[in-house]
Design goal:
With about 200 residues, the protein is of the alpha/beta class. About 40% of the residues lie in helices and about 15% in strands. The chain contains nine helices and five strands, in the order βαααααβαβαβαβα. The chain has helices at about 20-30, 45-50, 55-65, 70, 75-85, 105-115, 140-145, 160-165, 185-195, and strands at about 5-10, 90-95, 120-125, 150-155, 170-175. Strands 3-2-1-4-5 form a five-stranded parallel sheet, sandwiched between helices. Strand 2 (about 90-95), helix 6 (about 105-115) and strand 3 form a beta-alpha-beta unit. Helix 7 runs parallel beside helix 8 (about 160-165). The longest helix has 13 residues, at about 20-30. The protein is globular. The two termini are about 15 Å apart.
């Protein structure tokens, strides 16, 4: 019997549209003087584009996550459609870089929307000065290196994909304004089936 291939999925801005929702529904209504819009976000983190410091950006993101607004976000439609059509053909792991204070929100969101397919949730914590935590992995590639099997990795960050690709894992970059990738999420996920291992 042919082994089932494993996909490791980033969560935010891959399975959902966190940056867009946070910006449009949380940050901009509270900062009406900011003129930047979602398509202007050419760097992630976007604090310089928004004219704020990094700590204020992270604080706003964390407040959004913990306010109940994160829990109400819909999944990315193209991701959900892909899982419904193709999800049963693979094993799935969620791998996210959220602060530990909000990891439970992320896990709940993943299992509520994708729990039919995703059975494992792992966090490489996004550091916060106010909540130091033991460092088990410095980056997502460190976790993937420890897995017995990872065939594909899907993420919106070129910085995350590069070290994973060096491990021999097939990588899919989710198109976002900050990474320069062309096309749509549907097109990106459509590449998985054609990738040779």
């Amino acid at each position: 019997m042919k082994p089932v291939r494993t996909i490791v999925w980033d969560v935010d801005d891959t399975l959902n549209d966190l940056m867009r929702v946070w910006l449009d529904e949380w940050f901009l209504p509270r900062n009406i003087q900011v003129k930047a819009r979602y398509m202007d976000i050419k760097a992630n983190p976007p604090h310089k584009i928004l004219g704020i410091n990094l700590e204020d950006y992270l604080s706003s993101y964390d407040k959004f996550r913990l306010s109940g607004s994160y829990a109400q976000m819909p999944p990315a439609g193209a991701a959900l459609r892909w899982f419904k059509a193709e999800g049963h053909n693979y094993r799935h792991i969620a791998l996210t870089a959220v602060p530990l204070c909000a990891a439970h929100e992320s896990a709940g969101w993943v299992f509520r929307h994708f729990g039919r397919w995703i059975r494992t949730f792992h966090v490489v914590p996004s550091p916060r000065k106010s909540a130091p935590a033991p460092l088990y992995e410095a980056e997502k590639a460190d976790f993937i290196k420890r897995l017995d099997r990872c065939d594909f990795f899907v993420d919106d960050s070129r910085r995350n994909l590069a070290p994973v690709a060096r491990l021999g894992v097939k990588c899919v970059l989710v198109p976002k304004p900050w990474n320069g990738a062309k096309g749509t999420l549907s097109e990106a996920l459509g590449k998985i089936r054609g990738m040779r291992l």
